Each structure stands twice: as C-alpha cells, then as structure tokens.
Amino acid sequence: MMPMASRKSVLLLLLLLLELGLAVVPAICAVHRVCIVGSGIAGASTAFFLRNYSDSNLPLDIHIFEQRDVVGGRMAMVDLAGDKFEAGASILHPKNLYTVGFTDLLGLKRVTESDSSAFGFWDGEKFVFRTLQPGCSVFSKKITDLLNTLAVVWRYGLSLFQMRSHVQRLLERFTQLYAANRKAYSTVEDLLRSVELYDATQHTLADELIAEGLSAQIINELVTQVITRINYGQNATLSGLAGSVALCGSGADLWAVAGGNWRMADGLIKYANASLYLNEKVVSISSAKNLYNLSLASGEVENCDAVVIATPLDEEKISFDPPIHLPDRHMQHTFVTFVRGLANASYFNLESISSMPDLIGTLETSAVPFTSISVLKSYNDSDKAYKVFSRNAVSDDLLDLLFSRRDSTIRLDWAAYPHFKAPEHFASFILDGQHLYYINAFENAASTIETSALAAENVVRLLLERLSHGSLKTKVSIPVVSSDRKLYKDL
Ligand SMILES: Cc1cc2nc3c(=O)[nH]c(=O)nc-3n(C[C@H](O)[C@H](O)[C@H](O)COP(=O)(O)OP(=O)(O)OC[C@H]3O[C@@H](n4cnc5c(N)ncnc54)[C@H](O)[C@@H]3O)c2cc1C
Ligand SMILES: *[C@@H]1O[C@H](CO)[C@@H](O)[C@H](O)[C@H]1NC(C)=O
Ligand SMILES: *[C@@H]1O[C@H](CO)[C@@H](O)[C@H](O)[C@H]1NC(C)=O
Ligand SMILES: *[C@@H]1O[C@H](CO)[C@@H](O)[C@H](O)[C@H]1NC(C)=O
Ligand SMILES: *[C@@H]1O[C@H](CO)[C@@H](O)[C@H](O)[C@H]1NC(C)=O
Ligand SMILES: *[C@@H]1O[C@H](CO)[C@@H](O)[C@H](O)[C@H]1NC(C)=O
Ligand SMILES: *[C@@H]1O[C@H](CO)[C@@H](O)[C@H](O)[C@H]1NC(C)=O
Fold first, then answer.
1. Is the pTM of this model over 0.85?
2. Do 464 and 354 share a structural domain?
3. Residue 370 belongs to what domain range?
4. Which pLDDT score is estimated for 253?
5. 157-171, 197-211, 465-479: which range is least confident on average?
6. What's the total number of domains in the chain?
7. Strand, helix or coil at 226?
8. Would you state the pLDDT for residue 156?
9. Coil vs helix vs strand at 213
10. 406 and 449 share a domain?
11. Is the predicted pLDDT of residue 80 greater than 70, yes or no?
12. How many angstroms does the Cα of residue 423 sit away from the middle of ligand 5?
C-alpha cells in the first residue's frame, strides 16, 4: 500500500541524512499520520482544514478510509432513467459560509431553485390547503407568487412572521460561530453554549415556538406536517435547534452544487492531497501509548497518530479497544423512492395531472402512507420524474395506486439523521481523552452539510492544538469566505 511505501522512503531519507552526518532533524518536524474514517462532507472537510491550518512546523500525512466505492456519503446522486438527481442531502442555505466558500475555492458552480412551485397538503381524502399553480394562464408568475404568499399569510397570519423572526434569531447566533479567533471546543455543549444555542437542544421545537407565541395551527400544519416532516421525517416534538434548521431550509435562495453536492467532498479531498482508500471498511480501532491501530475489513492494519471518526457510530459497528461509551442515540430512517413516469391524478381526486401541485405534503394520519411527493423534472405532460419520501418502505401496491405509469423506479433506505428528541445528550468530540476524535457527536444538535463542516473545523483546530501541545500559532479567522457578498443578504 502507498502509505507503507512513503513511510519507507521517509526512513531511507533519515538513514541517508544520518550517514551524511546531518541528523539534525528536529523532533517537532516528525510527520503526524492522521487517519479519517469516512469520506462524507465531515471527513472531506477534516482533510481540507487539516491541510489548510497545518504548515511545515506540523507536517501531516492525511489518510481517508471509505467503505463505499464513492466519496460523499449522504451527498449522493441517483441515476433515474438517464438523468441524475440528488438522492440524499439536496439543498444548502445562502448563509452556509463554509460550503459557499468551498464551492468558490474549488471552482464549482452553485445552482438555485428558480421557480416557486405550487404546493398542497393532502389528508388522504382531499387537499386541506393548496396554493395556485405557477404560470397559470391568467396570471403572470409574479402575480401568482404574490397571491400564493398572500394565501399563506392569510391562513397563518402573524405566526408566519414570528416563525421567521425566531429562525432569524437562531441563524444570527449560529453565524457567530464563524467569528475570528474563537476557541476550539472539546464538547458539543461548550461549542453551542458559546453562542447561546445550547438551550434550543434541550426543548422541543413545539415548546420553543409556543413560547414565541406561534399559533397551534401553524405548528400543526405548516411546521409539523410539512416542514419538519419533509426535512427530517419527524413532527414538532423534535429538538428545537434541529427543528429550526429545518425551518431555515424552507426559505428562499436555497442552492445546490451543479453536478451534485458530493463534488464538494471530492474536491476537498483532492485539494488536501489526502490519500484516499475506497472500499476499505474500518472494523476496529485499538490504541496504546498514543498510537492507534486501524484494522480494515481487508485484513490490513494501519498505524495512526490521531484518528478522526467522520461518520455516525450509531449503526456502524466499529469495535474499540479500550472500549468507548456513547450516549444513546438512534438514526431515523428515511425512504426515498424515485419514479420516472406519470402520477395518478385520480388518486388525489383531481381531474387532470396538470392541476396536481408540484409538492404535496401529507398530514400525519394512518390514511396516508407517505410523507411527500414532488415533481423533480417535467419532460412533457405525460413524462415526469418524481421523488417520494416516506418513513417506511413503499410497497409496489401503493406505487401502483400513486402512479398511473412507472417506467423506472429506484428505492433508497437512508440511515438519514439522528432521531432528534429533547433534551439532547451529546458525546464528546474527544472519545478517549487522547487523539480519538468524533465529529458526528455534533449531529444530534442538527444534521446538515454545513454543520458537519463546522464541526469538522472545530475538531481540526482541537486536534492541531493538542498535537502541537498548544504551540500551534492559530492563524484562523474565517478560513473560507466567499467574496460574493450578495449571497449573504437576509432571509
Ligand atoms: C435523505 C436525506 C436528505 C437530506 N437533506 C439535507 C439537505 O437538504 N441539506 C443538508 O444540509 N443536509 C441534508 N441531509 C443531512 C446531510 O446529508 C448530513 O448531515 C451530512 O451529509 C452528513 O455528512 P457526514 O460526512 O457527517 O456523514 P456521511 O455523509 O454519512 O459520511 C460518512 C461516510 O463514512 C463512511 N463510513 C461509515 N462507516 C465506515 C467504516 N466503518 N469504514 C469506512 N467508512 C465508513 C460512509 O460510507 C460514508 O461515506 C439529508 C440527509 C438525508 C439522508
Ligand atoms: C410525534 O413524534 C413522536 C416521536 O417520534 C411520537 O412519539 C408522537 O406520537 C408523534 N406525535 C404525533 C401527533 O404524531
Ligand atoms: C501529495 O502527497 C504525496 C504523497 O502522498 C506527495 O508525494 C506529493 O508531493 C504531495 N503533493 C503536494 C502538492 O503536496
Ligand atoms: C498495533 O499494531 C502493531 C503492529 O503493527 C503491534 O505491534 C501493536 O501491538 C498494536 N498495538 C495495539 C494497541 O493494538
Ligand atoms: C388511480 O387512483 C384511483 C383512485 O385511488 C384508483 O382507483 C386507480 O386504480 C389508480 N390507478 C390507475 C392506474 O388509475
Ligand atoms: C413525452 O416524452 C416521451 C419521451 O421522454 C415521449 O416518449 C412521449 O411521446 C412524449 N409525450 C408527449 C405527449 O409529448
Ligand atoms: C486555506 O484556505 C484559503 C481559503 O479559505 C485559501 O485561500 C488558502 O490558500 C488555503 N491555504 C492552504 C495552505 O491550503
């Protein structure tokens, strides 16, 4: 394997220097081997920040182990009858400064969703609420948008503004985490407390919104039934911070990386010049005297000075020696079904397919066995690509009711994000008091691409400070910020 070869050449070089009588290699110049488990955004950002923050005083050798044959983890694409769509994490927020910065640095293009689509809530028998179809003949798109907004405001009134200002307030606190010269925190609690976001993880979203004076109607309908259900597959009993993040993901100006969000992981790993090992599953990690042995499913053993776990450990069975202890947490499974074909208008009691909303959220009743259905792309009036979210696998029988024609079907089952419940209990970023780090300890505060990058950035500074025994000259301001100011305009 490559790393053994490069270690050998380092050894040879040292021997050569010894022979030449030049053995004045200072101890601090020893190359540290940092091993990263997982190549999702957390692992890829770890590699990037390690490279970005280290210098010749702290040379690093970065190795990434990924069990699958592609990088990106929960940023992944599906190929549905020749067209590619985001299968996992699909949208980013304009105030996601790390990811906006990554795309700039890597020369990737951001695409924004252009048209506001019509939506409706389906209760199993009828639409309890729906907006107008955009682009309908009598109205221009602008007027339709306005009427749609008025319809929503009319139904929810003041609560809508209270909800926006609640989200805005949390977003402002979150934004402080990008500030210059902040500390590297060893626990999620301390990181969140530093910007007054910890309390939001200790109460349910419903309780937080009620305290803000929101109406029960907006919580039941818009918040629970559509936003938190679609974003996280849960109702408003989820913890407040994760819930508010879901509300954030329902505003305007959302974007994605052209060609797929996974490209960020790919680009960052290459930028960091990390050694990437695909199809290599880490099965156990043992440590003694500050040295870690990573055992791979292939039988290989890797030695590392520090290990960064960049995947949730809730379902991944990696064994640790000595053992580690994690608070109880389980992953919420989300089933995503992609269909190319045509939906069945009469399932929704509609006369024609053209009157079917592009996004249909459903109410939480036993009569409705799925969470939402949306049109991803319309080829023509009788050929479309759809995405169906559900909490359980959808049967063929259900799909045969929902669709009048199915040319192609793809089913995915994601261990998607933690099941958020207040009060949240967090694992530490440092699992063994030494150099075993865990980025996804953060994930039950919120699970997004940006927060994974943010947690990785914190862990990298923690690791470098501890590895260099505090001698690291932290030159950190905001490391990755786009010059494209217009992206940061308010919600
Ligand atoms: C359906 C869905 C929709 C979502 N929508 C959004 C969204 O719109 N916006 C948003 O910001 N976020 C969204 N999220 C959440 C987002 O995807 C995650 O928070 C984020 O991608 C987590 O990244 P990660 O690197 O921490 O973990 P992952 O992406 O899960 O990466 C972990 C990697 O580790 C690898 N791995 C695991 N165990 C081992 C092992 N033992 N050895 C080697 N490799 C291993 C895995 O194969 C994987 O590649 C969504 C998630 C899902 C599932
Ligand atoms: C909301 O979700 C919680 C946790 O998943 C569940 O126990 C509860 O029954 C749900 N409530 C409603 C009204 O669906
Ligand atoms: C990247 O790493 C390899 C060894 O893994 C090294 O030979 C090469 O010089 C590095 N390239 C850069 C640009 O640092
Ligand atoms: C790690 O592996 C080396 C061999 O590469 C072995 O000598 C050492 O005992 C192992 N240490 C631990 C803690 O497993
Ligand atoms: C469409 O939905 C209706 C009403 O649920 C159902 O009777 C019919 O079998 C479905 N399938 C097709 C192909 O129309
Ligand atoms: C719609 O497009 C498909 C190919 O994508 C084609 O087979 C079909 O004939 C088209 N239908 C109409 C009504 O244009
Ligand atoms: C660190 O990242 C910044 C972008 O935020 C970039 O301009 C700089 O060149 C990077 N430095 C290194 C050493 O990678």
1. yes
2. no
3. 116-156+332-418
4. 76
5. 465-479
6. 2
7. helix
8. 65
9. coil
10. no
11. yes
12. 44
